[in-house]
Design brief:
alpha/beta; 42% helix; 20% strand; elongated
Length: 689
């Protein structure tokens, strides 16, 4: 119970004391006034309440409310300065207002005791029109609602015959028949449609003294009924639309309670109407926060939020918007998209794109992953090269993505709608490679097709041709390629006629062409033709900051290939990946991740360090400094490099018992290149087996 101190015992203080004395939640502890004979002081004494002339002794921290009714500003300010922090001060103006309200209350009570007032209040407080006549048909009663519907004032119609006021009225007939008529439809002269109940007024002696009519305007009711019918039709239509949607839809009210869901919602979440309707908006969430509740709090739409719903923890994307009617929040509506369906469609789209791309170039610059400075420089250079017809030379280690760049350059050029052909120069023998590139005439060699065959350069006319491992070309093929680059023409094998072509050449190599020029294995003039626009693609060890992005993309690709659902990589596994030097570059990274995913359990969703193999360098050739030329023996640098290269090849061949394929893999060179170097350095193989 709150304690109240009244300062001022005049008329206002007395009025407030009378009110508070009747209230059970407040207790007046004292009334203070400098006039000991003030009416408030006298009343307080009668009620057993403490009184005084100074308010200070009564003001302490236990006082909840101080009502200051002296009307003096100085007293109000003194009380305000001395009050406790939890004490509320009510000024005297409020007391004056309360006093006035009490006077009006007394006047109202007096009015309510009047019988005529009661009668008028009853008749005029209803929305139904009321008209009463005596036995002669003279109007005796005409209430406010009748005025509104009939359009005539009470003062004007009192004492007139009912036929003059309402020509359509049948109250006189009611007097004649002495029968009650219920729910009679009448259309007034102003077009208003009403329903009337007509009742005869009969005394206990069966003597009729008049008739009474109560009528209601049904124009609004009819209109409302039509609106309700229209609303029901609209509601039915909306429900049909919502239920026919393949997207799950849920609607909650302003309190966050479910009021509507559609069949797609049940299909995606696995929850029935009984489990959602009338339940909190969090009922369907298995992981994440309720977006409905956030929208109700902020009154703003939220879109594209990922979460899991239902007992099966279905992964979905949720869009929720508030429902605001006449600036009042009425609830929110959410649309749920099944992520598995989206992922399936995305996979189908990617598959279709891959199928289309296999017909020509597969990749674009958007498919090249990496934001390191080294990779961004290479990409910018490649984009510049794509806009020119110049020959592009892609340089980089095996597995760095040279072919990916070649595809992207073609797709970004004005030749993208023409053919893109790929040739691995190290995969074909010299004779076969020459006939494949330049074609042959009929009878050029045994087994040649009748009529000859067009070469890849002819097939790629007006398009692009990608020559991978260009450093493996034989001297004869190099000479023919030089003619293509210089003259834009080819001569078929076994032919003499030049054929004009318009082909953009994109070459790639992972070997040192400058060294090939030095040892005579690569033509210098061809080198200068190819090296017009060189692009150096950095190895993975030089752009380790790109490993997280590349790994994420590779996991997505491997998931699609192997039908897995691996979500990511743990910190410990990423630490191992970041601290490995990756001699095999991105190709090796894909191998490591693919192997890890294959051996993961199906309930594991993240690649951990335990899933990764031991990441150690596969090349463990130790250089013996004793084998290096001494500083005293001054020889040509190229000769010293050749001696050192020969020793390394011999050692690795011995380690692999003369197996050239295994040796090439360890040294990270092509088998063709290894054969060339074995022949060049006169390395004996038989003694190693």
């Amino acid at each position: 119970m709150q304690e109240v101190l009244i300062v001022g015992g005049g008329k206002g203080g007395t009025a407030i004391l009378q009110i508070l004395h009747e209230v059970s939640v407040m207790k007046v502890i004292a009334v203070v006034d400098i006039n000991e004979k003030a009416p408030g002081i006298e009343l307080s004494k009668e009620l057993g309440i403490q009184v005084g002339t100074d308010w200070r002794p009564f003001l302490n921290d236990s006082v909840d409310i101080v009502i200051e009714v002296t009307g003096e500003q100085e007293v109000f300010e003194q009380i305000r300065d001395k009050r406790g922090k939890n004490t509320v001060i009510i000024p005297g103006s409020v007391a004056f207002l309360i006093s006035k309200l009490l006077e009006e209350k007394e006047d109202l009570i007096h009015q309510l005791t009047s019988e005529s007032f009661k009668r008028d209040l009853i008749f005029n407080s209803t929305d139904d029109g009321m008209v009463g006549i005596d036995e002669q048909g003279i109007v005796m009663l005409f209430n406010k609602s009748a005025e509104r519907m009939i359009g005539k004032n009470q003062e004007d119609v009192m004492g007139l015959h009912i036929s003059e006021v309402i020509p359509e009225s049948k109250l006189t007939k009611t007097i004649q028949t002495k029968r009650t008529e219920i729910n009679q439809e009448v259309i007034l002269g102003n077009g208003l449609k009403i329903i009337s109940n007509r009742i005869p007024m009969i005394t206990d002696h069966d003597e009729i003294i008049g008739a009474f009519s109560v009528f209601k305007d049904i124009t609004e009711v009819v209109n409302l009924a039509e609106e309700i019918t229209n609303l029901k039709e609209i509601q039915t239509m909306l429900e049909a639309i919502i239920h026919s949607s393949d997207d799950a839809i849920s609607v909650v009210d302003e309190d966050g309670k479910g009021i509507l869901i559609n069949p797609a919602y049940t299909r995606i979440t696995g929850l029935s109407q009984e489990e959602v309707i009338g339940k909190p908006a969090t009922a369907d969430i298995s992981e994440g926060e309720s977006i409905h509740l956030k929208v109700l709090q902020t009154r703003r739409a939220i879109r594209g939020t990922k979460m899991r719903v239902g007992p099966k923890r279905k992964e979905v994307i949720v869009n929720v918007a508030p429902i605001i009617v006449n600036n009042k929040l009425k609830g929110s509506v959410g649309v749920i998209h099944d992520m598995s369906e989206i992922q399936s469609l995305t996979q189908e789209l990617d598959r279709a794109r891959r199928i289309i791309r296999t017909l020509e170039a597969k990749y674009m610059f958007e498919d090249i992953i990496g934001d390191s400075e080294e990779m961004m420089i290479a990409i910018e250079q490649a984009k510049l090269g794509a806009k020119t017809p110049a020959t592009v030379l892609l340089r980089g280690e095996s597995g760095t993505g040279k072919e990916l760049f070649a595809h992207a350059i073609h797709n970004a050029s004005d030749r993208k709608f023409n053919k893109f052909l790929r040739v691995n120069c190290a995969a074909l023998s010299e004779n076969l490679l020459e006939s494949e590139l330049f074609g042959y005439e009929e009878g050029a060699f045994s087994g040649a097709k009748r009529g000859g065959k067009r070469g890849l350069f002819e097939e790629a006319n007006n398009g692009s041709i990608f020559l991978d491992e260009i450093g493996e070309l034989s001297a004869n093929t190099q000479a023919k390629l030089l003619r293509v680059l210089q003259e834009n023409e080819i001569v078929r094998v076994g032919g003499t006629k030049s054929i004009q072509i318009n082909v953009r050449v994109i070459a790639a190599t992972n070997v040192n062409l400058e060294k090939g020029i030095a040892d005579g294995s690569f033509r210098e003039d061809l080198y200068y033709r190819l090296n017009r626009m060189p692009i150096q693609i950095p190895p993975l060890r030089q752009r380790k900051s790109d490993i997280p992005l590349i790994a994420e993309a590779l996991i997505t690709k491997i998931n699609q290939d192997y039908g897995r659902n691996v979500e990511g990589i743990t910190e410990s596994a990423m630490y191992k990946l970041m601290n490995y030097h990756w001699p095999g570059n991105v190709r090796e990274l894909e191998n490591v991740l693919g192997r890890a995913i294959i051996f993961m359990k199906y309930n594991e969703v993240n690649i951990d360090g335990k899933h990764l193999p031991q990441l150690e360098s596969s090349v463990k050739t130790v250089v013996n400094t004793a084998e290096l030329p001494s500083p005293d023996s001054v020889e040509d640098l190229a000769i010293q490099v050749e001696v050192f290269e020969k020793n390394i090849i011999q050692k690795v061949l011995e380690q692999n018992n003369g197996n050239k394929t295994a040796t090439a893999k360890v040294l990270n060179v092509s088998v063709r290149n290894l054969y060339y170097k074995i022949e060049k350095y006169n390395i004996e193989i038989n003694s190693m087996k």
